[in-house]
Amino acid sequence: MADLEGKLDRSMNYLKLALFFGTILIFSSCIFIFLSNSNFTPETALGSSREKYGVICDAGSSGTRIFVYKIAENSENSQNLAKIDTLVRNGKPVVRKVSPGLSSFGNHPEKVVEYFEPLLTFAEANIPLEQIEETPLFIFATAGMRLLPEGQKSAIIENLQKNLQTITKFRIKAENIRIIDGSWEGIYSWISVNYILGNFGTKNEAAKKTVGMIDMGGASVQIAVEIEGENKEKNENVFEINLSPIIKFQIFSATFLGFGANQGLEKYEKSLLSPIDPCSPEETKGSGEWTKCVEKVRNSVRNEKCGAEKCLLNLKTPKGIDLAEMEMFGFSEYWYTTRNFGSHGTYNYTNFVKNINEYCTESWEEIKRKKQNGGFENIEQSRMETNCFKAAWTIAVLHDGFEIDEENNRFQSVLEINGEEMQWALGAMIYHTRNSGILAAEKSLETNRFMITCSYILICTFSFLLAFWLFREYYTKRRKISSYRLVV
């Protein structure tokens, strides 16, 4: 009998072991569920949110500017969008420019590395030493480089890709040094504007309706807007933009070469059949006739038939774009020209034209006299003679080229948004941060979840096999004991 009781005790011990491992299984399941639904990383466990950095160079036609951004690993954005801000030191943004433009080295590509040295040294001085080697560097060239012959373009870019690492410790990838086309410049600007406005959503705020942008420079004008609804039309100017696994947009982005303010002026002057220019003040080379000026300029821009229901500057555009209903922001020339006439900010066509007319019908001597006495305070000296044409040109492109209604619109011209000057470089950093995966926190999170999943599967498998063996032993012994009792 004692032997029988001993066997029963051992069987109970087996059962207890099975219950113990079952408890482990349940406990590990709870841990797995908790970790899988939280942003657990070693950094968050310690309560830290160490910042990383990114550096981008805007290599434009007149010079190159370098921007340094700080990238928060533990973003508060519920959509997993990185939190990126311009780095500020001593109350000023960490930005520096050198001249001339990168394209000026077309005949001397071997000198481009030296050209970038002061910019990169400046950026390195503002980033913690231990973080420099893990900080990515992007160099994106724009309009000036696009105009160079192919051989010169390639020589400059290849020289930078091969030799830039000799003067900096920044993390460099060949694909991050290149010439970008105007459409991508527009997309980056669109991302910048909507990011600064908070339209992509945050932890505490839902995503908002996005805004569009128009940026007029000297040589070209760019437009970028979101296409509402599903677009199935094939169009080379429509781009699928993914800022995160769940933040996706269809963007119409296009660049119109020759429609910048300076190129527009050149084309206009060549088209004049008379030496008397209605867009120039009297006593210079013009007649100061604003009505004739704006009519002539608008006629030169009006859309012709492009074989589509909707055209912007004679370019076929997809359905789902209604610029009259969309909130639009105008930059660069739109800001400078409207500001010259005291009409910047929320656009008022009637007020804008009234102020233009008052200036453009004055004689040149009267304009200069008023300027000397403190009048026309917003107008820079260098723009005084061309101001009337540029006003007519911005109006023509806005209303005739892009067909935005004069009165029924939601257009505004700005230099800054929420206190930050709009730069496409910010949008580029946001986009390529997401696509190059430089955020260690996200990588760490993915790795942690993978390891947790593997560990969970192993624990489950081991616990199941052990429990199966223990219960098998238990019931085998129970049958033997039952048989023994029957015999006795």
UniProtKB/TrEMBL annotation:
PANTHER family: ADENOSINE/GUANOSINE DIPHOSPHATASE, NUCLEOSIDE-TRIPHOSPHATASE NTP-1. InterPro entries: GDA1_CD39_NTPase (IPR000407). Pfam families: GDA1_CD39. ATP binds at G218, A219, S220, V221, Q222. One of its GO terms (cellular component) is membrane. The chain crosses the membrane at residues 14-35, 450-471. This is Uncharacterized protein. Keywords: ATP-binding, Hydrolase, Membrane, Nucleotide-binding, Transmembrane, Transmembrane helix. It comes from the Eukaryota. The active site is at E185 (proton acceptor). Belongs to the GDA1/CD39 NTPase family. One of its GO terms (molecular function) is ribonucleoside triphosphate phosphatase activity. One of its GO terms (biological process) is CTP metabolic process. The keyword Hydrolase applies.
